[in-house]
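I am still learning, so would you mind making up any protein sequence you like and the C-alpha coordinates describing how it folds?
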Amino acid sequence: MTESVETRFVASASSGEVTGLLRRPAGAKALYVMAHGAGAGMRHAFMEAMAERLAAVGVATFRYQFPYMEQGRRAPNPAPILVKTVRSAVAEAARLAPGLALYAGGKSMGGRMTSTAAAMERLPGVRGLIFLGFPLHGAGKPPSAERGAHLADVGLPMLFLQGTRDNLARLDLLRPLLAGLRPEPVLHVVNDADHGFHVPKRTGRTDDEVLDELAGVIQGWVR
Protein backbone atom coordinates (compact mmCIF):
# COMPACT_ATOMS: atom_id res chain seq x y z
CA MET A 1 0.00 0.00 0.00
CA THR A 2 1.26 3.50 -0.87
CA GLU A 3 0.29 6.58 1.10
CA SER A 4 -0.11 9.90 -0.74
CA VAL A 5 -0.24 13.18 1.19
CA GLU A 6 -0.61 16.60 -0.42
CA THR A 7 0.59 19.56 1.60
CA ARG A 8 1.29 23.27 1.34
CA PHE A 9 4.31 24.98 2.83
CA VAL A 10 6.01 28.38 2.72
CA ALA A 11 8.67 28.39 0.02
CA SER A 12 10.16 31.69 1.14
CA ALA A 13 9.00 34.79 2.97
CA SER A 14 8.62 36.73 -0.27
CA SER A 15 7.09 34.07 -2.53
CA GLY A 16 4.46 32.49 -0.28
CA GLU A 17 3.13 28.93 -0.22
CA VAL A 18 3.66 26.13 -2.71
CA THR A 19 2.29 22.61 -3.07
CA GLY A 20 4.13 19.42 -2.13
CA LEU A 21 3.22 15.77 -2.58
CA LEU A 22 4.53 12.89 -0.46
CA ARG A 23 4.29 9.38 -1.92
CA ARG A 24 5.27 6.82 0.70
CA PRO A 25 5.11 3.08 0.04
CA ALA A 26 4.70 0.68 2.94
CA GLY A 27 8.07 -0.33 4.36
CA ALA A 28 9.97 2.60 2.84
CA LYS A 29 13.29 3.39 4.51
CA ALA A 30 14.43 6.26 2.28
CA LEU A 31 12.81 9.48 1.06
CA TYR A 32 13.90 11.33 -2.07
CA VAL A 33 13.04 15.05 -2.16
CA MET A 34 12.66 15.42 -5.92
CA ALA A 35 12.52 18.89 -7.51
CA HIS A 36 11.14 19.49 -11.00
CA GLY A 37 12.96 20.92 -14.00
CA ALA A 38 12.68 24.43 -15.42
CA GLY A 39 9.91 23.83 -17.94
CA ALA A 40 7.48 21.51 -16.17
CA GLY A 41 6.11 21.14 -12.66
CA MET A 42 5.93 18.34 -10.15
CA ARG A 43 3.00 16.67 -11.96
CA HIS A 44 4.85 16.34 -15.27
CA ALA A 45 4.63 12.82 -16.72
CA PHE A 46 8.31 12.15 -16.04
CA MET A 47 8.01 13.20 -12.40
CA GLU A 48 4.84 11.13 -11.93
CA ALA A 49 6.43 8.10 -13.56
CA MET A 50 9.60 8.32 -11.46
CA ALA A 51 7.59 8.65 -8.23
CA GLU A 52 5.52 5.61 -9.21
CA ARG A 53 8.53 3.47 -10.06
CA LEU A 54 10.44 4.49 -6.94
CA ALA A 55 7.41 3.60 -4.83
CA ALA A 56 7.39 0.18 -6.51
CA VAL A 57 10.95 -0.44 -5.27
CA GLY A 58 10.29 0.90 -1.77
CA VAL A 59 11.62 4.47 -2.05
CA ALA A 60 9.37 7.32 -0.91
CA THR A 61 9.34 10.64 -2.80
CA PHE A 62 8.44 14.22 -1.98
CA ARG A 63 7.74 16.36 -5.04
CA TYR A 64 7.07 20.07 -4.84
CA GLN A 65 6.50 23.19 -6.91
CA PHE A 66 8.84 26.12 -7.23
CA PRO A 67 6.95 29.41 -6.72
CA TYR A 68 6.92 30.45 -10.40
CA MET A 69 5.36 27.13 -11.39
CA GLU A 70 2.83 27.32 -8.57
CA GLN A 71 1.81 30.76 -9.84
CA GLY A 72 1.50 29.63 -13.45
CA ARG A 73 4.46 31.62 -14.74
CA ARG A 74 7.00 30.35 -17.27
CA ALA A 75 10.19 32.09 -16.18
CA PRO A 76 11.93 30.55 -13.15
CA ASN A 77 12.38 32.61 -10.01
CA PRO A 78 15.80 34.11 -9.27
CA ALA A 79 18.24 31.55 -7.87
CA PRO A 80 18.01 32.79 -4.25
CA ILE A 81 14.24 32.08 -4.23
CA LEU A 82 14.75 28.64 -5.79
CA VAL A 83 17.43 27.80 -3.21
CA LYS A 84 15.20 28.90 -0.32
CA THR A 85 12.40 26.73 -1.73
CA VAL A 86 14.72 23.71 -1.80
CA ARG A 87 15.57 24.23 1.86
CA SER A 88 11.91 24.66 2.80
CA ALA A 89 10.96 21.52 0.85
CA VAL A 90 13.60 19.42 2.60
CA ALA A 91 12.33 20.64 5.98
CA GLU A 92 8.71 19.87 5.03
CA ALA A 93 9.60 16.40 3.77
CA ALA A 94 11.43 15.62 7.02
CA ARG A 95 8.40 16.84 8.99
CA LEU A 96 5.98 14.66 7.04
CA ALA A 97 8.10 11.51 7.11
CA PRO A 98 10.35 11.50 10.17
CA GLY A 99 12.63 8.53 10.51
CA LEU A 100 13.27 7.98 6.80
CA ALA A 101 16.78 8.39 5.42
CA LEU A 102 16.67 11.69 3.54
CA TYR A 103 18.04 12.32 0.04
CA ALA A 104 17.49 15.32 -2.22
CA GLY A 105 17.96 16.43 -5.80
CA GLY A 106 15.74 16.25 -8.83
CA LYS A 107 15.34 16.72 -12.56
CA SER A 108 17.65 19.11 -14.40
CA MET A 109 17.32 22.62 -12.90
CA GLY A 110 15.72 21.22 -9.74
CA GLY A 111 18.76 19.07 -9.12
CA ARG A 112 21.16 21.93 -9.80
CA MET A 113 19.29 24.23 -7.39
CA THR A 114 19.43 21.48 -4.76
CA SER A 115 23.20 21.10 -5.10
CA THR A 116 23.56 24.90 -5.07
CA ALA A 117 21.64 25.01 -1.78
CA ALA A 118 23.75 22.20 -0.32
CA ALA A 119 26.99 23.89 -1.42
CA MET A 120 25.99 27.12 0.31
CA GLU A 121 24.88 25.50 3.57
CA ARG A 122 24.32 21.91 4.63
CA LEU A 123 20.77 20.66 4.07
CA PRO A 124 19.71 19.34 7.51
CA GLY A 125 19.41 15.57 7.60
CA VAL A 126 20.22 15.01 3.92
CA ARG A 127 22.56 12.06 3.40
CA GLY A 128 23.20 12.46 -0.32
CA LEU A 129 22.10 14.08 -3.58
CA ILE A 130 20.57 12.40 -6.63
CA PHE A 131 20.50 14.08 -10.05
CA LEU A 132 18.19 13.06 -12.89
CA GLY A 133 20.04 14.72 -15.75
CA PHE A 134 22.33 17.38 -14.26
CA PRO A 135 22.33 20.45 -16.57
CA LEU A 136 26.04 21.14 -16.83
CA HIS A 137 25.67 23.71 -19.61
CA GLY A 138 22.81 25.58 -21.25
CA ALA A 139 21.16 24.52 -24.49
CA GLY A 140 22.68 26.18 -27.53
CA LYS A 141 25.55 27.63 -25.53
CA PRO A 142 29.26 26.70 -25.71
CA PRO A 143 29.76 23.56 -23.58
CA SER A 144 31.41 24.33 -20.26
CA ALA A 145 31.71 22.76 -16.81
CA GLU A 146 31.27 26.13 -15.10
CA ARG A 147 27.80 25.31 -13.79
CA GLY A 148 29.28 22.38 -11.89
CA ALA A 149 31.99 24.33 -10.05
CA HIS A 150 29.88 24.58 -6.89
CA LEU A 151 29.72 20.78 -6.58
CA ALA A 152 33.16 20.85 -4.94
CA ASP A 153 31.55 22.54 -1.92
CA VAL A 154 28.75 20.00 -1.42
CA GLY A 155 30.74 17.40 0.53
CA LEU A 156 28.04 14.71 0.30
CA PRO A 157 27.73 11.43 -1.60
CA MET A 158 26.16 12.15 -4.99
CA LEU A 159 24.56 10.02 -7.70
CA PHE A 160 24.40 11.34 -11.27
CA LEU A 161 22.06 9.64 -13.77
CA GLN A 162 22.92 10.90 -17.25
CA GLY A 163 22.09 9.96 -20.85
CA THR A 164 24.74 9.73 -23.54
CA ARG A 165 22.62 11.99 -25.81
CA ASP A 166 22.01 14.63 -23.14
CA ASN A 167 22.72 17.96 -24.88
CA LEU A 168 22.94 19.74 -21.51
CA ALA A 169 25.76 17.61 -20.13
CA ARG A 170 28.60 16.42 -22.32
CA LEU A 171 30.11 13.40 -20.62
CA ASP A 172 33.65 14.36 -21.63
CA LEU A 173 33.18 17.46 -19.45
CA LEU A 174 31.19 15.84 -16.66
CA ARG A 175 33.45 12.85 -16.03
CA PRO A 176 36.64 14.80 -15.16
CA LEU A 177 34.62 17.24 -13.06
CA LEU A 178 33.17 14.41 -10.96
CA ALA A 179 36.51 12.61 -10.71
CA GLY A 180 37.93 15.61 -8.87
CA LEU A 181 35.22 15.71 -6.19
CA ARG A 182 35.40 14.18 -2.72
CA PRO A 183 33.68 11.96 -1.94
CA GLU A 184 33.80 10.95 -5.60
CA PRO A 185 30.25 10.76 -6.98
CA VAL A 186 28.72 7.76 -8.71
CA LEU A 187 27.93 8.33 -12.39
CA HIS A 188 25.39 6.02 -14.01
CA VAL A 189 25.23 6.43 -17.78
CA VAL A 190 22.14 5.46 -19.77
CA ASN A 191 23.11 4.64 -23.33
CA ASP A 192 21.24 6.56 -26.05
CA ALA A 193 19.08 8.52 -23.58
CA ASP A 194 18.59 12.27 -24.04
CA HIS A 195 18.08 14.93 -21.35
CA GLY A 196 14.53 13.68 -20.73
CA PHE A 197 15.72 10.04 -20.71
CA HIS A 198 13.96 9.30 -23.98
CA VAL A 199 15.59 6.61 -26.14
CA PRO A 200 15.09 6.13 -29.90
CA LYS A 201 13.11 3.13 -31.13
CA ARG A 202 16.17 1.83 -32.99
CA THR A 203 17.75 0.92 -29.63
CA GLY A 204 15.14 -1.77 -28.99
CA ARG A 205 14.45 -0.26 -25.57
CA THR A 206 11.42 1.67 -24.35
CA ASP A 207 11.28 4.78 -22.21
CA ASP A 208 9.48 2.72 -19.55
CA GLU A 209 12.43 0.35 -19.39
CA VAL A 210 14.77 3.30 -18.91
CA LEU A 211 12.64 4.61 -16.03
CA ASP A 212 12.74 1.18 -14.42
CA GLU A 213 16.54 1.24 -14.77
CA LEU A 214 16.76 4.65 -13.11
CA ALA A 215 14.57 3.57 -10.20
CA GLY A 216 16.61 0.40 -9.70
CA VAL A 217 19.88 2.34 -9.64
CA ILE A 218 18.49 4.84 -7.13
CA GLN A 219 17.17 2.06 -4.90
CA GLY A 220 20.52 0.29 -4.90
CA TRP A 221 22.45 3.48 -4.23
CA VAL A 222 20.37 4.69 -1.28
CA ARG A 223 20.71 1.25 0.32
DSSP finds six helices and eight strands in the chain. The mean pLDDT is 96.
